[in-house]
Write a structure and sequence with these properties.
The protein is α/β, with parallel strands linked by helices. The chain contains 18 helices and 15 strands. 43% of the residues lie in helices and 18% in strands.
Length: 488
Amino acid sequence: METCTIQTDGSTMKKVGGAGVVLISPEGETLKYAVKLQFPTTNNEVEYKALLTVLSLAKALGAKRLIVQVDSQLRIGHVKGDYEAKEERMHKYLKIIQQLSQHFDSLDFVQIPQAKNAKANFLARLASSNDYNATFELCIEIRGQPSTEGEQALKRKEQDEWMTLIILYLKEGWLPKDKAKVRKIQIRTARFVIIDDVLYRRGYSLPYLRCASSKEADYVPLEIYEGICGNHTEVRSLAGKALRAGYYWPTLQKDACDIFRACDKCQRFANVQTRPGETITPISSPWPFAQWGIDIIGPFLLRKKQLRFIIVAIDYFTKWVKAKLVTTITKAKVISFVWKNIICRFGVTHVIILDNGKQFDNPKFQKFCQDLGVKNHYSSPRHPQANGQIEVMNRSLLKIIKTWLQGAKRVWPEELQNVLWAYRTTIRVPTGETPFRLTFGTEAIIPVEIGLTSFQVKTYEDQKNQQELNDNLDLIDEVREEAMKQMA
């Protein structure tokens, strides 16, 4: 990657400061830039302001390798740490310079003679002079306050500019001088609140969404996407899961899209639609666990325990999934799976939808279901969509297993529970809810809420939590009714 060279200087005249910048691109092209400081300032402040202007300009232009040339040995010594800055305001400028320096792969500060810095010095003097006129082909930016005040006053180590303005207004009532910006900030901050020095946004899906800084915004979607219980979900689902977990930042959906597009595994193992389009045949169940679909996935690569197949069942309403690893597919193992994983856990079901495999379509299994009053519906080759939900579930499980275990495919049995957990805590499109909520009446706490404490975890109280769980159970019927309407 090529390196840009920037020369800079500062000037003061009648309590007005000016900073001049000359940027030389790798191709030899020159860009001139100047800043007029319309507030009382000193020579030291002007020099630092010039350095800040250089780094901000280079960052905005996307430069990654930079050589900054100045004619002041003292400034070079302060930035490199060879000399100590005694004034408190200078320390603030140095801190901001250090923060901006982190955006570059390579950054060198070089001292040059004043004669070689004449162009930058001319621009600085021009900006600080009251005799400037438009005959010079140069635009001068005008600043009304120092960089260490105003927007930078509450700027913390991991805090973004979008949060800074909101916190300044909520804590101190600070507003910029521009009336248009004042109105914009006042409208925007109406949905924000500070609780225990943490900024939250009042949400529609949850009462309070914790505002995430840039580093936190990098952590949250990645943990949900490919963390302990990640399922490499698609963009809309990933953004929705972050919101449901209690987090917010302005570029949430864009960041989710960037993660999905950059994931090699998701592009490699994405489902490819090969069947011709047809009208969807909806099959819905009015109450949870009344209608299940069962199917077999496999065979997979052999393990030490010879596990090769997965028996998978899905409830057609809540989309709750059960799965069991088996070595072979037999009538006895299918009956055992239905009894232990469906009947004993969720009660006697009304209907089980199956394909025409011999492990399902046999007298022993039919008698087992008949004794419990369970009806068996077998899908026909002429109507494969009749068991479509379980087929879709199978494809989803296979996709997640592939993305999790690329390059280590023989360890798939150990990861099956992680895959099921990820599926159960992700919003399903037909219901608009997670299977976990439709089953248990509330959302699960996912690992990212522990890694970056969410409002729900932070405000946990035993007695209050128990009461809210009881309330959720009382309201779960309404949630299920709304999910049923969405599926209709």
